[in-house]
Amino acid sequence: MSMYGRDPWGGPLEIHANDSATDDDRSRNLQDFDRAALSRPLDETQQSWLLGPGEQKKKKYVDLGCIIVSRKIFLWTVGSILAAGLLAGFITLIVKTVPRHHHKAPPPDNYTQALHKALMFFNAQRSGKLPKHNNVSWRGNSCMRDGKSDSSSVIKDLVGGYYDAGDAIKFNFPASFAMTMLSWSVIEYSAKYEAAGELTHIKEIIKWGTDYFLKCFNSTADTIDRVAAQVGVGDTSKGPNPNDHYCWMRPEDIDYERPLYECHSCSDLSAEMAAALASASIVFKDDKAYSQKLVHGARTLFKFARDQRGRYSAGNDAEKFYNSTMYWDEFVWGASWLYYATGNSSYLQLATAPGLAKHAGAFWGGPDYGIFSWDSKLPGAQVLLSRLRLFLSPGYPYEEILRTFHNQTSIVMCSYLPYFTSFNRTRGGLIQLNHGRPQPLQYIVNSAFLATLFSDYLAAADTPGWYCGPNFYSIDVLRKYAETQIDYILGKNPRKMSYVVGFGNHYPKQVHHRGASIPKNKIKYNCKGGWKWRDAKKPNPNTIVGAMVAGPDKFDGFHDVRTNYNYTEPTLAGNAGLVAALVALSGGKSGGIDKNTIFSAVPPMFPTPPPPPAPWKP
Question: Which residues belong to any copy of the Glycoside hydrolase family domain (predicted)?
Fold first, then answer.
């Protein structure tokens, strides 16, 4: 038997199973076998069988100390680095040698320019020992004995704070509303303040006010029985007695007694002061010690407001100037701010109590419904609580009343639009929120702030607009309303007059303001000695930059007369609304609101399921 295989060198190989040849014979036979085949050229495979692996070229390496790398890789790496460096240098040379056109930053818009000026008004209204950087050359330290001359009061130090208007009275009710408005604007638009370079300034303004409010009651106690409501007197009906309205003097020269008014049942004032401290605590949340101090004071004031019911202005001097019509709206307003400042749900439960909302007038309507002011806080509170619904949706048990507040806010926004007849307008386009009564601008700036803010809320919630009845309106319409009203105030009106002093070229020159109307000439004018400056026909010797005067009448008319305060007197609360509206409009639509800061103390919300239905009875 034989097997046939293939000779790897090309010839046939025959193997006999019974071959008994020795190994030597086989070796000799193989050596002699087909020598011609071995002499032929061999292919690569055959060479590899015979010769084994061929000789490889020895690689060269470079010893770098810590590692050893191939010389080829080393040269490639070094070459690549050098080439990249040369390319980068070439590009840099081109960039530096090619001429460039420098584009200047666009000038700030009118709202930002007016904002710088409007804030300066608060510097001019400061009482007490002024800071070195107050930057109002004609002002100095004033009324350094406030609170110290009244032996009947336990509150002894009331130096500081702000003068209310063109006089030297310190009314805490409108002043605390002003500080709340400023804090609210910072909470929502801190980035815009920072872009305008005014964030530090506005915080200093707020702190000057809150530091004073902390002096007006025992801020370290948990329970109090009194609050300072006012310093100074404005009533002149009792004869020619020297006081803040009878006399015309620079605050620095005041030498008459300035009595302190305390209140022991003043829910409206105490709740508004609580709102001011609570909102400011969010502004100063990075200063934990001061923020906690403000929160504690706000809690104490609000407890006093709830425990001792009453209107602060009933039967006293403030009734003629800043009369409070009720305190229910301050309860909703103050409770809302305390909820945001503390996260304590008991305040939210109070703010959303249907009975409280009813007492505050949430369902009344009427000609003055929706007018936000130092006296009526409900429109602002409803916007503030609509924010909660838009961004946190707390659900049951708050949803029903929050939805009502949201709907009421939408109705108020509709009333601002020119398509509806809730309010008349002058021929020049100024809305008559106070129905033609004097001093209209303070209400208009507040509405402009709320309109812009609400439109920014909707934009942040990805909501393009809202319904007025069956008609849908874009949020741009709200911003347009605010812009037209503020533009009117800044000079786009029939008289071409800016009602903000120092803005533009044509503005009131005879502002009803004692400090601005009397020259700082080292002469002390007594109580009646300043009357000649009050009655002078010349412009004020000192420009009170940023002051928004009371405004024109319902015919777009304006009388620049110092003695007519219904046209020419600025107020703290009015300027606070102006600042809030200006910062909201500044920079256009860019920026928007800060969605989260106001919720920094609010715990996560997990809606409580509604109670189960009553068992079915057949």
Answer: 111-582
